[in-house]
Every structure is written in C-alpha cells, then in structure tokens.
Amino acid sequence: MAAQLISQAKAVGMTLVWSGIGSAILFKLVDIVIGLRPSEEKEREGLDITDHGESAGLPLKDGGKLGSHVFVLNGANAAAQGMHWSAITHQQAATPLTRDDVVMQRISAEPAFVNEMKARMHPGMTMVLTDAPLSPDKRSSKDFVIVTTG
To answer: Could you list the pLDDT tens digit for every one of the 150 residues in the chain?
Structure first.
C-alpha cells in the first residue's frame, strides 16, 4: 500500500512539473507572438478607445475642468423629498468654489449608463468625481470607473 501511495505521489508531482513547464512555455510564446499586455501608450489613452473605438468617459457639458468631489447619497428626511446628495469638494486655492449641484448638472451620460447608476443607488452610496490624473498602473487615467460592493 505504501508503494502505491509513493507511486501515485510521484505521478502527481511529475504531472505538476510537466503542466507547469508546458504552461510557462506557452505563456512565453503567446507573450512573444501577440503580447500579454497592451502598450503603455494604449493604456494611457484608454483601452475602451484603442480597442473598441468608444469612450467610456462622462463628458462635461461645458468642457473645462471638473475638480475633485466626493458625494454621499442620503436617504429621505423631513426636509428633503426623496434622496439627496451631500458633497465634499476639493479645489485649488486659486479656483473659485463651485456649488455641488452645478457639478452634477455639468456631467452628461448615455441613458444606459444613467439607468445602471440608478439601479445601484442606495442611501450611503459614495461617488467620487475627479479630473485629477490617476496613475497609469491603475489603468484608469482617462476612464470612468464604477466600483460596487455586494
């Protein structure tokens, strides 16, 4: 019985080594032939544009800068009809402060995107809007990123 167990353990070990070496060779071959990652230039421009010819960004109705804003969705209370946004805004000292409702009105989006957002809205939801540059390793330098939980 011990001999059979040792024999099977050797077979499992050889299978792991064989599949590991084979996978490494195929991995390297694919990397050489077509590449495993897009170029840094494509990542900076945004893969939605370079690969699909579409922009996933949310255009501003009047152009210009957006600034950085954090919105929190609050539930209904006695003073408000339905849910409403509370905001924390950060702008450079030389930039005049923009009212938060004006920031929201400047953003335009496709109806499908708006419907997706509405389906995920709930009290306590946090939304961050910024035109500040993000690092390229996050792959979101020009893209709009939605992160949800649950």
So the answer is: 899 999 999 999 999 999 999 999 999 999 999 888 888 777 766 666 677 666 656 677 776 777 777 888 887 666 656 777 788 776 666 666 666 677 777 877 778 878 888 888 888 888 877 776 655 454 444 445 555 554
Residue 120 amino acid letter? R
Q: Which residue has the tokens 């893209």?
A: 143
Nearest residue to 128 (alpha-carbon basis) of 70, 86, 62: 70
Domain boundaries, the chain: 2-51, 56-138
- Strand pairing category for 126-130 and 68-74: antiparallel
Which residue in this structure is represented by tokens 């050489």? 32
* Structure tokens that stand for 142 in this block: 């020009």
Residue of 134, 112, 3, 125 lying closest to 68 (CA atoms):
134
CB 108, CB 80: distance < 8 Å:
no
Cβ neighbors of 56 (< 8 A, separation 6 or more) are 46, 48, 143, 144
Q: Which residues are CB-neighbours of 22 under 8 A, at least 6 positions away?
A: none
